[in-house]
Write a structure and sequence with these properties.
- By secondary structure, the chain is an alpha/beta fold.
- Helix content is 35%, strand content 17%.
- It is built from eight helices and eight strands.
- The strands form two sheets. Strands 1-2-8-7-3-4 form a six-stranded mixed beta sheet, sandwiched between helices. Strands 5-6 form a two-stranded antiparallel ribbon.
- InterPro entries: ComF/GntX_DNA_util-trans, PRTase-like.
- This is ComF family protein.
Amino acid sequence: MLCAACRGGLSHTSRVAWPSPVPAGLVTPWVAETYDGAVRALVVGHKDRGQWGHRRVLGSLLAEAVRGATGGVDPEVPVLLVPVPSRPGAGRRRGYEATAALARTAARALRRERPVLLAPLLASRGAADQAGLGAGDRARNVAGSMHCPSAALARVGRRRSAAYVVVCDDVVTTGSTAREAQRALEAVGLRPVAIAAVAATRRRAGPGGGPTGDPAVGPGARRG
């Protein structure tokens, strides 16, 4: 479902991609791509059009982002991938949980290199569609929308607290969704150390005028 030229043009590196403005307390977000062109078509197809086969390509990009997020970490320390949950009912309508499917694919690839656990610890209480919302509205929309749905699930999370916890998503836009997932995990004693996503949207020009460009690249950017 992806031609050789498009597949060959996909990134084999990862980079830090801070949103602007940065939500207070957000851990470092790592991505493999910019949310544009073929990558945008793949994400939309997988998430909204039931194109299940795209999980392989998108999952490999997510694995690159996780490699960036875990660079320099002892390879014997387990990495715990926690996917951002879909809104209630979205997975049933689609037939699969989109982000969890990508995280599962990424975990399979990464297990050749280090111990990796997939833990869908979070559930969504529901939030309005984020399309068209600015950073402030997105933050208000998702505030308090995620939780560990049971005490048992919270206990499972705490037993894995020694792992290197990475929140996984498909796209980083304003960082509000990732920050809410981070908050919900911290509420049960898990402290994520990074965000990993397939792609980040291009940063818009600020009030002072500046050009629109690729997501910010921090000094810790590295090859995935």
